[in-house]
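Consider this record:
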Amino acid sequence: MLPELIVIHGISLPPGQFGGPWIDRLFSANVPPDAPTSLRDVAGLRVSAHALVRRDGTLTQYVSFDRRAWHAGRSEYQGRPACNDFSVGIELEGTDTTPYADAQYESLAALVAGLLATYPSLSSKHVTGHSDIAPTRKSDPGPAFDWPRWRALLSSRLRETRA
């Protein structure tokens, strides 16, 4: 698969909590049935993302960027359905209402700049939120994600790589 779209997500497990093993366990299909009550709904789900950006900016990659991950669900981008088939899914550890951390903006800008340099099929014009491709089901990364701030950081990174 040559990716044509980047989808930004927000995730916290248990909901509203940061750190801990649960996001890694979710994306490796390893949430046990006896997990904390707030996680029982995700136990057994087969979902994945290409990468996760933790609150401190640490990156974890789960799926190769040129392979399909199961992050978008029922989705559509500019009239094209099934976004998992042509997109990279990047999760930010956060919630719709908790401001994302400075380190996350920096790491996300660096990651996306690297993806744009690696995959000519990608464009900075085709980066969107999960809420934009599945608006009736999803709200992430939510109003707490500062798109103008992140786009300015990405532009700066792209200028640096061209210089």
Remarks:
- The longest helix spans residues 102-118.
- The chain has a mean pLDDT of 95.
- The chain is about 25% helix and 15% strand.
